[in-house]
Amino acid sequence: MVPGVSAQEYDAARREAGLVDRSDYGYIVVSGKDRASYLQGLLTNDIVALGPGQGCYTAYLTAQGRMIADLWVYELGDVMLLRVLRDVKPTVLSKLDQFIFSEDVQLGDVTDTFMALAIVGPRSAACLSSALEIPEETLTRLAEHGNLRASFLGQSAIVLRVADLGEPGFDVLIESIAFEPLRAALHRAGGHDIDAITVETLRVEAGVPKFHQDMDEETIPLEAGIEGRAISLTKGCYVGQEVIIRVLHRGHGRVARKLVGLRKTGDVTFKRGAVVQAAGREIGEVTSAAWSPALQQAIALAYVHRDFVAPGTPVTVEGMDAEVAALPFVPAGYGFADQKSP
């Protein structure tokens, strides 16, 4: 383990239950009987297909197919909850508001109503079950993006099934007054706090791109490789669809650059922003970097020219030999105790 990556905290997330601060996210409530059809025309995934207790990962695009944000949509039964990074939440809320005309739709910013944390790892369901007094089986049955209502000390809580942190787990949104008591209850149930460096390590190992780091307002979802999770190819029209369909069908999915994994031997880690070179020219740039405790090597996410995306392709980064790697580097559920190279 290299300095900055806590063996204890990494081990907790991979083998037990890790608690992750989620204060970097904001939350928008969409209510009204037209909420699903309204979002269907704006977001890339199939929103009208969601039933109570279901959710999905999606993207919000410009007419040119560039990303405004990626976000998660949860149908709670009486309202829809949108989870989006806090720094783009005002933009998303403003743009959504612009498209309400005669629809029965209301928007509400509930970011300050709730506080949130995530519980990830093999014992996350058991830990959360103990704290919220929900049957563990009920939690383990939740599909990815599933959700349910709960309560703690008489305060409302929302449980979301998540998989964006490298290990399967749950987000819990709780009214602010009950947040610290809930955290204490999760500690008593075996949860361990996980710091930001360890969280970043897990994310990079999982190959999960993050907005404003591995994606931004100039990114087309196909470049970031999120189309399989975020885009429905069977739904009706949405903003930016024409560009996506044109690339997929006329261009056979080929874009100028793609997000890939990089890996190398030795103790020197990659640096974010470092130039990637191959065949005597610059072909891309590192966007995220970490030391992988599971692989015992430096890893990174980087955009490279489409001619160099095949796993095993040799490249150099700041004079260091590296190679393109398939994502994820480490599959979800990978056990730290019985390490095997994926």
Word description of this protein:
The chain has 342 residues and is of the alpha+beta class. The chain has a domain at 7-201: Gyrase A, domain 2 (2-Layer Sandwich), CATH 3.30.1360.120. The chain has ten helices and 17 strands. The protein has helices spanning 7-15, 35-40, 89-98, 124-132, 136-140, 179-188, 196-206, 221-224, 227-230, 241-250; strands at residues 18-21, 25-31, 54-61, 67-75, 80-85, 106-109, 114-120, 147-152, 155-162, 169-175, 192-193, 257-264, 275-278, 281-292, 297-305, 314-317, 320-325. The strands form three sheets. A six-stranded mixed sheet has the order 8-9-10-7-1-11. Strands 12-15-14-13-16-17 form a six-stranded antiparallel barrel. The chain is globular. It starts with 6 loop residues before the first helix and ends in a 17-residue tail after the last strand.
Brief descriptors of the model:
single chain; 342 residues; alpha+beta; Gyrase A, domain 2; six-stranded mixed β-sheet; 23% helix; disordered C terminus
CATH class of the domain at 7-201: Alpha Beta
Order of helices and strands: HEEHEEEHEEHHEEEHEHHHHEEEEEE
CATH topology descriptor of the domain at 7-201: Gyrase A, domain 2
| Residue-averaged pLDDT | 94
Number of strands: 17
Going by CATH, the homologous superfamily of the domain at 7-201 would be Probable tRNA modification gtpase trme, domain 1
Strand content: 25-35%
Q: What is the C-alpha radius of gyration, as a whole number of Å?
A: 20 Å
Biggest β-sheet: strands ordered side by side in the sheet: 8-9-10-7-1-11
N-end to C-end Cα span: 18 Å
Q: Which CATH architecture of the domain at 7-201?
A: 2-Layer Sandwich
Low-confidence stretches: 336-342
